[in-house]
Amino acid sequence: MTWEYLGYLASVFLVVSLMMTNVTKLRWFNLAGCICFTIYGAMISAWPVVLTNGLLALVNIYHLIKLLKGKD
Prior knowledge:
The chain is built from three helices and no strands. It is mainly α.
């Protein structure tokens, strides 16, 4: 597998996330895209990509925790 395909997969996750009307689903798809982009960036030594998407993944996790706690 070339790492380029992981980058395409990450892009698909991010585009799909932005088509969601449900915020929880949006966060899950966006998190998957951020994780894929973080791995992709690390594999091609693109450290700004790793940093940005790693931080965005943490933001998504934070908001997912808030959303899931609010449902109790």
